[in-house]
Specification:
With 136 residues, the protein is mainly β. The chain has 2 helices and 11 strands; from the N terminus they run E-E-E-E-E-E-E-E-E-H-E-E-H. It has 2 domains: 1-29, no CATH class; 31-135, Nucleic acid-binding proteins (OB fold (Dihydrolipoamide Acetyltransferase, E2P), Beta Barrel). 13% of the residues are buried.
Length: 136
């Protein structure tokens, strides 16, 4: 279904390029795409080396019902850096629908627990409070 061309996989059916790293004939890809609602208003922080940073949590409902007949929701934390972080803090607030593209990063916390985080490369503003008010 896919053909190798430079550092991309290209789907023969829809001709979509997917960035990929090849190592010893095995493709390696760490990319996440999520769509969900922001759980709380983002706040801008500054890291020790002066980079802008914000943390957002997005609520992503599952597409199927659990045994009780209800839809579960996953709450996924994302780190957003530099100019993207500034734009998110300026234009987004709790309840806004956003698309997040990034990668999964894992690290150990102070208590030596494995922590997984999404490092966002791009945030797409899909629906803001202003557009929700206009629909109503």
């Amino acid at each position: 279904m896919f053909t190798k061309k430079q550092e991309f996989l290209i789907c023969k059916q829809c001709r979509i390029k997917v960035l990929c790293r090849w190592k010893e004939g095995i493709n390696i890809l760490n990319q996440v795409v999520l769509v969900g609602r922001i759980v709380r208003d983002p706040e801008l922080h500054e890291s020790e080396n002066g980079n802008k940073l914000t943390y957002i949590t997005i609520a992503v409902p599952r597409p199927f019902k659990n045994v009780n007949g209800e839809y579960d929701t996953d709450f996924i934390s994302c780190s957003v850096w530099k100019g993207v972080a500034e734009n998110v803090c300026e234009y987004c607030k709790k309840g806004d629908l956003v698309g997040v593209r990034g990668r999964i990063e894992t690290y150990k916390d102070e208590e030596n627990h494995q922590v997984m985080d999404i490092v966002a490369d791009k945030i797409t503003f899909l629906q803001t409070g202003k557009s929700k008010e206009a629909e109503a």
